[in-house]
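Sequence and fold:
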Amino acid sequence: MRGGVMGVFLLVVGIICIVYGATIMLTWSGTAFFLVWYALGIICGGTGALALALPDSTVVRGIRNAVCCLTICGIAIVSIMSAVIMREAYRTPPRDLDYLIVLGAQVRPSGKPSEVLRYRLAAARDYLDENPRTRVVVSGGQGPNEPCPEGEAMARWLERAGVDAERIIVESASKTTVENLQNSRALIDDDDARIGIVTNNFHLFRAMRMAERLGIEHVWGIPAHSTPWYLPNNLLRECLALVKAAIGGTI
């Protein structure tokens, strides 16, 4: 890639990252992960702009080439990891599982589930409608920006969707995915129960690896939908979360 082309490439990548980060920020998802896109945009776009503006020199070429190589390598690594992550979402769970565990996500100040959480609840409702003997554990505690525990909001949503309250078990103390799984499994008194873990397609791979690490047996993943526009953001976050989980020993 020639010098001027590299500079333009980095500038374009930087602009795309910043614009995309702005769209993520506007969702008010409760996290500051959009700052990662801003940081990537500033690094790539700033390097590209400087490479185009400054006279060509050994230092400018070195910085430009290094950032360009890191950008291309980063895109390749994230793309490969994302393909592995999404493969989990295309496996079909068996019918008539004994329990579902629905992992919590943000509840809006109004008390309504966020879009991500609604997708999870809709997937659980569909499975419960088709498998009337299956019960469900809705799992999630209360975050600092939430009006109630996620588990309680999830139970209300399922009841309004037509799921019998007697089929719903509420777990409302968990703060992390590991706690979701641990605390929910503790509420299931059958050691041989066949369990489905319900979460969004981009999150399912990590959740399943955590369940295996915790020794939860007879478990299958049930993928919920996610909004395509936000999928790059969610997959990048999952890639970083997988690295963190591997270092922390939770997968």
